[in-house]
Amino acid sequence: MDRPSDVAPAGDAGSAPPDAGPRPRPKVVIVMPAYNAARTLERTYADIPHHIIDGIILVDDVSKDETVEVARQLGLAVIIHQQNLGYGGNQKTCYEAALAQGAEVVVMLHPDYQYDATRIPELIAPIVSGEKHLMLGSRFLGDPIAGGMPKWKYVANRFLTIVENFAFGLRLSEYHTGLRAYSRRLLETIPYGLNSNDFVFDQELIAQVVAAGMGRRIGEIAVPTRYFNEASSVGFKRSVVYGTSTLRVVARYLLHRLGLRRSAKLTARSPQPPGRDA
User: What pTM value is reported for the model?
Assistant: First the structure.
């Protein structure tokens, strides 16, 4: 892949000495896994609260439109895949690049303008404070039907969420959002590089977080829903494949938790520090 010079690693700010005043805010980097987002990227960019952001990286997965050109006109750091790696493969590159830049908080934002980027300050606040390690922007804390979500997609999403809550022991309103924020510690702990390159990457990642003992450090905020012609949306057939794959993720997690079939995907890369409440 082509990594331009403007995606260079940033220096580590380190810890402030005791007499240096308040601790500097953590470095926040937005990553955008992009595919054919030329028509919506500028609107997405305009809504970002740039005063709290230290960098934006767009990873293009061999788009067939002008996504790269628009991103460069906006001044974004751009990474171009030489071949299409899929949604999950794109995110792997996103997180590797953000961590290389020294990001302490990484926001994953779909560039299709479906998610309200103005909510990013509320999204990252619990991570900045140290309360959470993963934050989700939930469409289901509002009214996604009023926002244009197809009813069949609403029903499917609710069903999968109920199943996942039962398996993971959580009470989230949604698992399938395209607006998320991660702490650096979380991304360095879970082996996301082993995950699928397809859309089920997101669900595998949450299963990894729970398996690592960090499930109670997942939070969510409400994010308004936007559905319109230019916004990317998985069709019915792909949704069936995605739903089936999600159920496989749940089954793998349960077998791993019960010790019946251990999974390398669900084994943390480093042990959690003792005494820390996950």
Answer: 0.86
